[in-house]
Amino acid sequence: MTNPASATDLPFMEAFASPSLEQWRSAVEKVLKGADFEKRLVAQTADGIRIEPLYAAASPSARPARAEAGRWHVGARMDHPDPAEAHTLALADLEGGADSLVLSFAGARAARGYGLVADDVAALDTALDGVMLDLIRLRLDPAGGGRINALLVAALVERRGLAPDAVAIDFGMDPIGLLASEGRFAASWPEIGRRLAGTIDALRTRGFKGPFVTADARLYHEAGATEAQELGATMATAIAYLRALEAGGMALGEARDAVSFVLVADTDEFMTIAKFRAARLLWQRVQQACGLDPKPMVLNAETAWRSLTRRDPWVNLLRATVATFSAGVGGADSLTVLPFTAALGLPDAFARRTARNTQLVLLEEANLWRVADPAAGSGGFEALTRALCEQAWSKLQDLEREQHEGLGGIVAALANGHVQQGLARQRQTRIKAISTRREPITGTSEFPHLAEAPVGVLDIAPVKRVKPAMPTTKAAEQDQGALIDRLARGAVRADAVTPPAQGLNAEPLPSVRLAEPFEALRDKADALTKDRGQRPLVFLATLGPIADFSARAGFARNLFEAGGLAAPGHDGFSTGAATDIAALVAAYEASGARLACLCGSDAGYAAEGAAAAQALRKAGATVWLAGRPGDLEGPLNNAGVASFIFAGCDVIAALENAQEIASAETAAP
After folding, report:
1. Is the dihedral of CA 314, 316, 321, 322 positive or negative?
2. The pTM is what?
3. Mean pLDDT, range 468-495, rounded to an integer
């Protein structure tokens, strides 16, 4: 890292005095004109971490970095159910610049109902035909039957005659993640740990280097987790694996080397960068607490599923760009960008190409990889990283204290509902922020596009998985190395299935996208439009000249269109400074709408609001008003105003009510 520039390097800087914090604060106070500094300029994250408007420069401290300097690995998902089609898409990804494939078998949560159907090595070989496994990285998505998926991939390597230590494969086994996402263990946790250790031992004996197990944060993120909750749960999962593998006879250092991580890169640039930096610090601290000499963590990233939208999905390209930048700056070893149409179905070649190119542009043109830690020394990032470490460590300790039927840690916290309850509280908080648009979603809750054209996805139905018949020989009692040999010779998935035993149950974590409440409203409005031939309509009853009503009319139109209701604009009905109430009512009657929303200035509401509301109510309208009524609420209610919409109101509830009122207008007269 270079030293700060000296005066000789930047001589022009001598012409400028360095302002003090007190001078800056004094200037800010003048601009605020008595407004509260804390409320206006200090924000808080979902974890309660303060975000100050100004930070002093920090001295970069030594922190763990990536094991490999240079570019992060560009990942592409391999999740088409048909092996031949999956092969075509994978080759296009690799030829287009990807150097890593994320193999998502059918049944993987991240496959979203799709996923590669490969019940034997032949099908897997077809999907990976022409893919040089010793020249790329392969990562398996956690899935039910993850042990079998790992053995199938190992069998393919052996069938092709490749040296296991020459391939880079992250086998992605994550039974704790399956407990969290599916709500069950197929056996007791000690037995699960024993099987996991046995499978890893078989793979290591063959020469595979791993990692073998994954601490996957995606399922917690999709269930509403904050950054600290995500980090705390992920670290607790990794610790549980360390304990289980050590109990299975593995040296603690080897157990550490068997673990990799998947974190989510979201649209909050500052917090995503801080989260990735904090993750490495936390894992270093865990290793130190275990008495190990710390090694760099294997940190994979994927862009956020919960932030994707089905409406105006092109905005997802921008979300992915912010997330990619943040993961790159934060120090991810590999990154997989979800294609912008992923929430609509299985992405086509074009969507996959844009996902690759989002990374390639930042790598090749922005050269983002050339600085190891761009955030080092930034007062803001260093402060957020430290604060997030503290919050996440506290969450980790909370999880470690949980107990359930002789179990402890994250497994107990999932089984007794502690994790689910904490995430549910945070999910409700976020839903409220989404509903009130304090957390806006561009293209969905803000600036919706009612005339958007549909985008293409692959025409393929989700996969229906059939559980294989139970084998006569318990696979768990077979030698796992022998199973690899049998699979390489043509055995099928069913031959490696383990019959379920008395296990552990938990409430599954939901997978929720933030835009879903608004998308449901849009879907309902679109169905009404299709059935009745006309979109549900709201009449904007504007008061005064354009300058008086344009701001609130724009606000109202934006709000109603977020629920799929049309709210056409117009030039108003002013006659000088006043409003032609008769012309306004006539225009309302001609529109055929049932819902009218008054839009004007506060002065206009005081002067004409009651009269306009009475006239519209007499014409049969349900009358709303855009803005906070203040002292006029009583008189306006008495005049016929039934509801008020304003910044901070519950938009979802308002739109549900508006749809009920407005949908009647599409009926035949």
Report:
1. positive
2. 0.92
3. 76
Can you give the pLDDT at residue 226?
A: 97
Q: Report the amino acid identity of residue 213.
A: V
Nearest residue to 299 via CA among 377, 220, 215, 198: 215
Q: How far does Cα 56 stand from its chain's mean position? A: 31
Q: What is d(CA 445, CA 3) in angstroms, rounded to the nearest whole number?
A: 46
Give the pLDDT mean for 606-627.
96
Residue 308: what are its φ and ψ, rounded to 5°? -70, 150
Q: Kind and range of the H or E element at 74?
A: strand 73-78
Which among 493, 486, 474 is positioned nearest to 155, based on CA atoms?
Answer: 486
pLDDT of residue 126: 97
By CB atoms closer than 10 A (0-12, 13-18, 19+), residue 216 is buried
Q: What is the DSSP letter of 493?
A: G
pLDDT of residue 495: 85
Q: List domains and CATH numbers for the chain.
A: 73-397+451-466+475-496 (3.20.20.240), 516-666 (3.40.50.280)
**Which residues of 561-633 form beta strands (DSSP E)?**
574-575, 578-579, 595-599, 622-626
Closest CA to 278 of 218, 326, 330: 330
Overall residue count recorded for the chain in this entry:
669
C-alpha to C-alpha distance for 183 and 250, rounded to whole angstroms: 27
- H helices then E strands: how many in the chain? 24, 18
Judge whether 136 and 94 are in contact, CB under 8 Å.
yes
Name every residue whose Cβ is closer than 8 Å to that of residue 56 and which is 6 or more positions away in sequence. 21, 379
Identify the CA nearest to 654 among candidates 592, 570, 565: 565
- Distance of alpha carbon 581 from alpha carbon 244, whole angstroms: 76
**Backbone torsions φ then ψ of 129, nearest 5 degrees:** -60, 130
Q: What percent of the chain has pLDDT over 70?
A: 96
pLDDT tens string 337-351: 999 999 999 999 999
Q: What is the mean pLDDT of the chain?
A: 92
Closest CA to 107 of 460, 411, 467: 467
> Rounded to an integer, what distance in angstroms lies between the CA atom of residue 408 and that of residue 206?
33
How would DSSP label each residue in 602-618?
HHHIIIIIHHHHHHHHH
For strands 137-140 and 168-170, give the pairing: parallel
Q: What is the DSSP letter of 142?
A: P
Coil, helix or strand for 511? Answer: coil
Judge contact between 102 and 77, C-beta under 8 A: yes
Q: Is the pLDDT of residue 111 over 90?
A: yes
Q: For tokens 């549980």, what's the residue?
A: 240
Distance CA 74, CA 190 (A): 36
Three-class HEC string of 348-384: CHHHHHHHHHHHHHHHHHCCHHHCCCCCCCCHHHHHH
**pLDDT higher than 70, residue 53:** yes
Tell me how many degrees the CA angle 514-144-492 measures, rounded to the nearest 5. Answer: 140
Question: Containing H/E element for 44?
Answer: strand 43-44
Q: Which residues pair with 43 in a beta bridge?
A: 51
**Rounded to whole angstroms, what are the CA distances from 271 to 45, 73, 160, 220, 623?**
8, 22, 44, 16, 42
Alpha-helical (H) ranges within 55-213 are: 83-95, 121-127, 146-159, 175-182, 189-206
Q: Are strands 538-542 and 73-78 parallel, antiparallel or unpaired?
A: unpaired
CB 344 within 8 A of CB 523: no
The Cα 549–Cα 336 span in angstroms is 46
Q: Residue 211: is the preceding peptide bond cis (ω within 30°)?
A: yes
Yes or no: say if 101 and 136 are a contact pair by the CB < 8 Å rule: yes
Residue bearing tokens 């939208």 = 309
**Residue 640: which of 596, 591, 574, 587 has the closest Cα?**
596
Bridge partners (DSSP) listed for residue 100: 75, 137
